[in-house]
Amino acid sequence: MGAPVQNPTQAEQDFFRAFALLRENAPSEGIERQEAFDRFARAGLPSRRVESWHYSDLRARLRQAPPLAARPDESDRHYCRAVLEKIAAPGALKLVLIDGFFAPELSDDFSGVAGVTARALASLPDEHPVVEKMRDLAALVDDPLLDLNAAFSPDGVVIEIAAGTQLETPIELVSFCGVNGGQSRFSRNFITLGDGARVRVIETRAESVGGFGDSALFLLLGKAAELDYACRSQNSAPVDVQNLVASLGAESRLRATALIAGAPFLRRQLFVTCAGENAELHLSGAVLLKGREHADNTLVVTHEAPSCLSRETFKYVLAEQADGVFQGKIVVPPQAQKTDGKMLCRGLVLSDDAAMSSKPELEIFADDVACGHGASCAKLDANQLFYMESRGIPTAEAQAILIEAFAAEAFDIMQDETLRDLLNADLAALLKSGAFA
Predict the structure, then answer these.
(1) How far apart are alpha carbons 238 and 252 in whole angstroms?
(2) Which one, of 184, 233, 181, lies nearest residue 205 by Cα?
(3) Which of 75, 128, 199, 349 is a plausible cystine mate for 124, CB 3.0–4.6 Å?
(4) d(C-alpha 255, C-alpha 308), whole Å
(5) What is the rounded CA–CA span in Å between residue 281 and residue 343?
(6) Model pTM?
(7) Structural domain includes residue 410
(8) Where are the alpha helices (DSSP H) in 281-414?
(9) Residue 402 placed within a domain
């Protein structure tokens, strides 16, 4: 195992004890869990001393680790069934997770959906080819919270899209916490698209009751596959880490966006590799924070193959004493000639007490590339406000209109009108509450 982190915090000691108990109760679990936890134990929870975590000190924020979530019971399912009707996207095929466990009773039946297989991760043995593919994807990233996820995740969902499948109906992953929300929740989900497959995925998260969350979503796109992915994260845990790891095959297309709000302390990590030639990646997000909320979008885009394109655009709206963080890095190794990569972060600050930290980076080792990045931060345009007010629009309504126009640009990368409309409706409802007026 090697030496664990020196002077462990209470939370780290809690994780050490929880894993020892887990191994005691399930000694037959594979060695991958043990190896992942050993890596976490050596690194510990990241603090400000770790450069990529400088603006989000998880070690200081997570004082204690809540106990591991138990398998949901009937009261959990009853509670989540009532909430599901209120938040789920209309018309989508649903797969529900409660505290990281797959809940087939609340999920739709995929047995009649041609070209799509959906099942619980816990139902697959460690040597299953799909599990091995997910393990290979995880190996691309060196991160202690992904290791912690691998060590503790009890379950998740595996979705396999067969080659050539053109699924017209969106698939929705809905993540809940149960009645007893003050627990540590881990889930590990995997979506793989065969060559030429086309699918839309929505991830809806409702986990604000309490506790700690550490989730991982893995995406593997085959040649010429196409995936539109939209995340609706408006109710995250008090301390929440969301990981997305993706690999794009040749000529594949990934468009991924997110609407983030209601985040007491959120770290969203995106690790994307353009592994095949002529792959195309579009990443975006709209983040709306108030009070003392904190949201950190950190992404690493690696162009492993030549002639790939990537675009990243993130918008932040910060009110009161909110704290927004954006860290983005584009990595271009020597073999990735003719890379085209651009990254942009824009912040809209509504209060003198709000803070925005932006750190875009380029790491380029090839000479035939077109790469660039930019970051800006400003307040609402007084002239635009005056123009609208002079035409009889109340100040609060005028501010909401300007904020909505600013944030909604993040969703323009979605070619699918259904996903754009869903996110725009969520944004409009959020602003209608008056929290950002």
Answers:
(1) 36
(2) 233
(3) 128
(4) 14
(5) 11
(6) 0.96
(7) no
(8) 382-389, 395-408
(9) no
